[in-house]
Amino acid sequence: MTLIELDKAAWINLERAGTDSGSALRYLNFCTVDRDGHPQARLVVLRAANREDRTIEIHTDIRSAKWREVSANPAVTVLAFDAARGQQLRLRGKVKRHGPGSPKAADAWDRLSPWTRSTYTGGPPGESSADVELETASAGGEEGKFVFGVIVFRAFQLDWFQLKRGGNRRAMFLYGSGSELVDAREINP
């Protein structure tokens, strides 16, 4: 594959992962920096990707550490790995937050299943749940919309890596301010 084809294929696979719960790229490592300057990584669910805009959308509780961390420092790394293909996608970029009541969050909330909505009920993420009474999935978790947020990550760099017996391959892609591909080059694995 040419470099242009590699870049296109990577983004097509990310777009598919946004709608296919069985995709190897569905769960991403979302890497931030906490207030003490320590790297933080957690798995998130890829909800949507757009190759034209070079964006990835995830959902979160606005009371979570990641929401606070990206508020203080919007620079993020997203890491995906497809074991069957032996491909790693490491994307660097910045995020924009869309909080409760924003058009983006309201639209995303409306598309969630009742079960997924119910995951936003209860106490703040990471705190003791001993005194929290959780809502049932059948209730639809409507109160969860008040703590529901969307994070949109825009990539400015993709480090593509192929693990392959007999010859690994690695390429770097840089995107401009309009999300256009401005540089594509092979680099040493």
Summarize the model shown:
By secondary structure, the protein is α+β, with helices and mostly antiparallel strands.
Topology:
Layout: H1 3-17, E1 27-33, E2 39-45, E3 48-50, E4 55-61, H2 65-72, E5 75-82, E6 87-98, H3 103-110, H4 114-118, E7 148-162, E8 169-175, E9 181-187
Antiparallel strand pairs: 1-2, 1-5, 3-4, 4-7, 5-6, 6-7, 7-8, 8-9
Which terms would index this structure?
single chain, 189 residues, alpha+beta, 9-stranded antiparallel beta sheet, 4 helices, 19% helix
Radius of gyration: 18 Å
Helix fraction by DSSP (H/I, runs of at least 4): 10-25%
Indicate the overall shape. Answer: elongated
The number of helical segments is: 4
